[in-house]
Design a protein that fits this description.
heterodimer, A: 507 residues, alpha/beta, Rossmann fold, 3 domains, 6-stranded mixed β-sheet, B: 357 residues, ABC transporter involved in vitamin B12 uptake, BtuC, 3-stranded mixed β-sheet, 17 helices
């Protein structure tokens, strides 16, 4: 093993039923470096981390840790800790009702000669530890008295104190605000100085460039490459994560129709925000316009849409719908203003699994009418049959529970639910995810058709090509904020450059 | 093919359970030298009242049937149970009698009708207040249903006792006794239960309430996105459940023309929950079948009545009841259901036989 290397993983492979989760992945971590592990959802980041910490049992490959003879195969997080690998997860796994000092030393408390806990020594050691990492806390206070960021840092302090050579931070910043992130970075840099190797898993590009020394990119369970931070500008990183070679990108001309310039406004949002998910943004959408929201996963695309719709109630700002001031505190308010939202998580927020296809289709329409004005059974059946035919939903009967349908057909049924309400403004969040190519094209056609009827559509998709084909205009999001809009000729290059943002965008 | 359709009907198993109880009755009656249809013999006796074993079961099972209506909705919408209904029954009965008799009065013989109506209305309002309290805790404060309703489970009965100044308050007038007695030849509780069932069934049929409740019970988040006010719907179910407890409380109190705080509705919440389960409803919420719950409620009463009929002493009756319940619940357990389905699929003739039995 090289002198300064603390961890090597070679040829790691792992299969979940039916999926090759990791295929021959290498990873190297050096002393005193912060190493970003990047990739889109499902790229294999978490799986790789779990192989390292003993949660997953990998099939092939070997792991070596500095100072440990032979290969290492962990079977539990305790095993991992014993060879110097500690992990801090997104959610803090500490006890809020114990003091900071107790949390730091729980399970390894200093003992007195009488086999009782030596509280005095514990307090003293805890105090030294937090001072060393420059965390400003009173170690005798209960953990719950401190912010999530501080709790996160206490977790890191605890991990770093346990003779830690490798520290894994799995999405530690996703619930922190900017100031808190800064504090966390200070602690990370302090540990780096002390020679700890840090693996930083995040989807915030800004943060990677702020603290990391090196980046390893995974895609679909395979290694794309390892790069020093200086050799991989943002645009190239985005291209590597998405699997597009940036230089070879053929620019695809958006087909169809021009951006609407003179139609009246459907949506005018000013300074809308939802704490922790989307920073204040302004957005105008004209009637008959298809606006795309683009950005990496977790950039706040869905959250922006949800704050307009009232799925996550906006805490600041004002919203005008069709020129009138609107107050939306719950989805029903938005629906009564002519909106609809097809959520990205079909299973959790879309389908009502045990109800029939018919009931799932008429649900939103019924909700708009109110409980006491029930649609007659005949009317319900007529509507259900109409959309089953129109969208070619494959179902045994209209009374089949929707959970028995395939994913794509469930999606069509939920789309039917919203089309049935005849919305003026329809938000489609990843409507084509997990859908076969034929259906995808149908949905894209449908979007264009709706916009020609004068309806406004907000379209969110991870597939840029699909958005280029349908959108008049795009809003770009990064790290939970809307950072710009793209108009005119939309090309893949422009969109990807905008997603990556930062210095590369300026040239 | 016909048999397959029958076994897939959600009411199939609850009805099988009823048949099971009836079969036990028939066998017993035959062994006693009576007709096997003894159970169904209903006559108007010398006092001009409807009697018979079936009538007794329908009469005595009224309270649990009424409670089962509210419980079914609560279970469906919130995937939890309201364990306070028994205590709330007692509180409503006490409040009713207190309003009629006046605070601190232990017994009245003659009551003006307006005063009586005030008492009845008070009981219903009290039921709604208790339901609203539970509903607020569960729907708006996200407290687990079991914990939230535990509060009134322990407190309501005691509050009732306080309202009655620690007395058993008697309202000895026929006008009050009628709710637990007879109208003409018909036992009133049967009528009250029938009206409650009819009203709720009609509401479920004529409005979208049933779909709303099931939708919220299956997927709260998705229902909200689709425009349902999930919290308000859950709240409403608890409110209705409280109202049902109020009605059941009046019936129970009227039977004994008094408010016996310590005994009215005792452990009845458990029977109501059992009725929902026996009716083939999942206690995990979602799809519900009101008719199943009602059948379940009367099945429980039928088991009890049958026990007494068989001469089982009231001390050991619960043991036998438990055995019967175990059998019924096991029949309805998904693994057993699947096994039976596989079995009947392989031998359709056997399935037909079972269905006709």
């Amino acid at each position: 093993m090289e002198n300064n290397v603390v961890l090597t993983m070679r040829g790691i492979s792992m299969t979940f039923p039916g999926v090759k989760a990791l295929d021959n992945v290498d990873f190297t971590l050096r002393k005193g470096e912060i190493h970003a592990l990047m990739g889109e959802n499902g790229a294999g980041k978490s799986t790789l981390i779990k192989c390292l910490t003993g949660i997953n049992d990998f099939e092939a490959g070997e792991i070596r840790v500095d100072g440990v003879e032979g290969t290492v195969k962990n079977h539990s997080t305790q095993d991992a800790q014993s060879v110097g690998i500690s992990t801090v997860y997104q959610e803090v796994n500490l006890c809020p009702n114990l003091s900071v000092a107790e949390n730091l030393y729980i399970g390894r408390e200093p003992m007195t000669a009488f086999h009782t806990i030596d509280r005095k020594t514990m307090m003293k050691k805890a105090d030294e530890l937090v001072k060393r990492l420059d965390i400003k806390v009173d170690v005798t206070q209960n953990l719950e008295n401190y912010s999530l960021a501080i709790q996160q840092m206490i977790a890191i302090a605890r991990a770093s104190d346990m003779d830690c050579k490798v520290l894994i931070l799995d999405e530690p910043t996703s619930s922190l605000d900017d100031g808190e992130v800064e504090k966390l970075f200070k602690v990370m840099n302090q540990l780096k100085e002390e020679g700890v190797g840090i693996i930083f898993v995040t989807h915030f590009l800004e943060q990677v460039y702020a603290v990391c020394d090196r980046i390893t990119v995974l895609r679909n369970g395979t290694l794309v490459g390892e790069y020093p931070i200086a050799d991989l500008p943002r645009v190239k990183l985005v291209a590597a994560m998405m699997g597009k070679d940036f230089d070879d990108l053929a620019s695809i001309k958006p087909e169809g129709f021009e951006a609407q310039k003179d139609t009246p406004m459907e949506i005018e949002a000013r300074g809308l925000s939802h704490k922790g998910t989307i920073k204040p943004f302004d957005l105008d959408i004209r009637k008959g316009e298809v606006i795309g929201l683009t950005g990496l996963l977790g950039s706040g695309r869905s959250e922006l849409a949800r704050s307009i719709y009232g799925a996550d109630r906006a805490q600041t700002g004002t919203l005008k719908v069709a020129g009138k001031e609107a107050k939306i505190s719950q989805p029903l308010d938005a629906m009564n203003l002519g909106m609809g939202l097809l959520p990205d998580d079909r299973k959790a927020e879309g389908i009502i699994g045990d109800l029939s296809v018919r009931e799932n289709i008429i649900l939103a329409m019924q909700a708009k009418r109110g409980m006491f004005r029930q649609l007659s059974r005949a009317k319900q059946e007529e509507i259900a049959d109409e959309y089953i035919r129109l969208l070619q939903i494959k179902t045994a009967t209209r009374e089949t529970p929707i959970k028995q349908l395939s994913g794509g057909n469930q999606q069509k049924a939920i789309l039917a639910r919203w089309l049935a309400t005849d919305p003026d403004f329809l938000i489609l969040d990843e409507p084509t995810r997990g859908i076969d190519i034929g259906t995808k094209t149908e949905i894209q056609k449908l979007i264009i058709q709706l916009s020609q009827q004068g309806k406004s559509i907000m379209f969110i998709s991870s597939e840029i090509e699909e958005m280029l084909r349908t959108c008049n205009r795009m809003a770009v999001l990064r790290d939970g904020a809307k950072v710009g809009e793209l108009e005119g000729e939309l090309t893949q290059e422009r969109v990807m450059a905008a997603i990556a943002g930062g210095a590369d965008n300026e040239k | 093919m016909k048999s397959k359709k029958l076994t897939q009907n959600p009411l199939f198993l609850p009805l099988v359970c009823v048949l099971l109880v009836l079969a036990v009755n028939a066998v017993y009656d035959l062994s006693q030298g009576k007709a096997f249809y003894e159970f169904f013999i209903t006559v108007i006796n010398d006092q001009g009242l409807l009697t018979g074993r079936l009538v007794t079961i329908l009469n005595r099972g009224s309270e649990v049937a009424i409670l089962a209506i509210g419980m079914t909705l609560v279970v469906s919408a919130s995937a939890g149970t309201d364990i306070s209904v028994g205590s709330v029954m007692s509180l409503c009965a006490s409040f009713c009698c207190m309003l009629v008799a006046g605070f601190g009065v232990s017994s009245v013989d003659d009551v003006a009708i307006p005063r009586l109506l005030l008492g009845l209305l008070g009981a219903l309002v009290m039921g709604c207040i208790c339901g609203a309290f539970n509903g607020t805790l569960v729907a708006y404060l996200n407290i687990q249903p079991m914990v939230a309703t535990l509060i009134l489970w322990s407190a309501a009965r005691a509050i009732g006792l306080l309202l009655c100044n620690n007395l058993i308050v008697y309202v000895r007038t026929d006008a009050y006794g009628v709710f637990g007695g007879y109208i003409g030849f018909l036992p009133t509780p049967i009528l009250i239960a029938a009206v409650c069932i009819a009203v709720v069934s009609l509401v479920l049929k004529k409005t979208a309430m049933g779909m709303y409740i099931q939708s919220v019970g299956i997927n709260k988040k998705a229902s909200r996105i689709a425009g349902l006010n999930s919290k308000r719907i859950i709240f409403m179910c608890y409110l209705l459940c409280g109202l049902c407890a109020g009605i059941a409380g009046i019936v129970a109190s009227s039977r004994i023309t008094s408010a016996d705080s310590n005994n009215i509705g005792l452990n009845m919440e458990l029977d109501a929950i059992l009725a929902v389960a026996l009716g083939g409803n999942s206690l995990g919420g979602g799809k519900f079948n009101l008719a199943g719950s009602i059948i379940g409620a009367y099945t429980i009463q039928a088991i009890t009545t049958t026990m007494y009929n068989l001469g089982v002493s009231s001390a050991v009756a619960p043991v036998f009841k438990a055995v019967v319940v175990i059998v019924i619940v096991v029949i309805q357990a998904p693994p057993v259901k699947n096994w039976v389905r596989k079995h009947t699929a392989a031998r359709p003739a056997a399935g037909k036989e079972a269905a006709h039995a």
